[in-house]
Structure formats: C-alpha cells, structure tokens
C-alpha cells in the first residue's frame, strides 16, 4: 500500500476524490485537451457522471502545484498476457499510463515530473514489471512526453485508431520495463 500523498520536487500527487470534479473540468473541457482525451464529454453533467464512477476514481491521481489542481494521471493496473498454466503469475503485473495536464502550465516540465513520479510509484511502490501508454500519432505532445520519460516506442500502427473528428489515424504504443527504469533516475 502506498502512503499518499506523494511529493516530488515541485508537485503533489494524490488520490482523486469527488471534490476534484470542478477543478479537472476546467482544463478537460478546453478544446486542445478535449481533442485528445479518450472520452470527451460535451456537458458538465456528462463529465460529472463519468468522473464520479467508482472505477474511474480508483485509477485517477491528481497533480497539484502549490495547492492548485493542474492535471490528472491515470494508472490502470492490468494482467500481462500469459499462457494458461502460468496465468496466475501474470496477474496485476503491468500498468497502462495516461495523463492530462492543464495547458496553461505547459512548457515548465510539470508533466515530465509528474509522469516520472508515476513511473517510480508503479515500479517501486506497486512492484509492477511493465508500463505502457498509447496515443494518436498526431498527438505529438503526448508521444514526446513518453520519450522524455524514457519510454520506448514499440509500435507505430497505420490508420488503426479512430478519432472522433479526424477519422482513422496512426497510433503509437510506448512501453518501459522495471529493469530499464533505474537508468532514467
């Protein structure tokens, strides 16, 4: 079990709670964020319904700077793929990462700092063996962040990812193994 909150040099990471609804809505409804998030709710009521789902809050972390919510992070712990005889050893060993940061705080290294902390939590605090993240190729800021934190591009797919307004786009998958992480500290 992790001891929350977790502090970085400049940020505080903590578990999300229902009270974070309004602060996250402020940046998640911005067009430049809305364009890339997996589920872009059009209305506040729709966002509230999705945000307050128990399974959503369970995977969500809040990023604070000086007491102000500037973003959120997602960590979905998953089972690794395995053959049936060893499937029990693949339970809960990997995680899918996601992030959304308020663009008004961009360009100052906050996203990099927050995601590095999330990787550290995943490997050292939770004992995961592998992390992965996906994005549209057109979402350059997301894949550049993955590269900055030391993730490896494993796959570039051609027009396999359906975007709500742009149609079929290329997709990217990045990953990082626990044994690769110490080199990036």
Short summary of the structure?
The chain has about 180 residues and is an alpha+beta fold. The longest helix has 16 residues.
Any overview of this molecule?
The longest helix has 16 residues, at 110-125. It contains 6 helices and 8 strands, in the order ββααααβββαβαββ. Strand 5, helix 5 (110-125) and strand 6 (130-136) form a beta-alpha-beta unit. It has helices at residues 21-28, 31-34, 44-51, 54-59, 110-125, 140-148; strands spanning 6-7, 12-15, 60-65, 68-78, 94-101, 130-136, 152-163, 167-177.
| Radius of gyration computed on alpha carbons | 16 Å
Number of helices: 6
Helicity, in percent?
25-40%
Q: Decide which structural class fits the backbone.
A: alpha+beta
Order of helices and strands: EEHHHHEEEHEHEE
Mean pLDDT level: 95
Residues in β-strands, percent: 25-35%
Q: Could you tell me the number of beta strands?
A: 8
Uncertain stretches of 5 or more adjacent residues: none
Distance between the termini: 22 Å
Shape: globular
Strand order of the largest sheet: 1-2-3-4-5-6-8-7
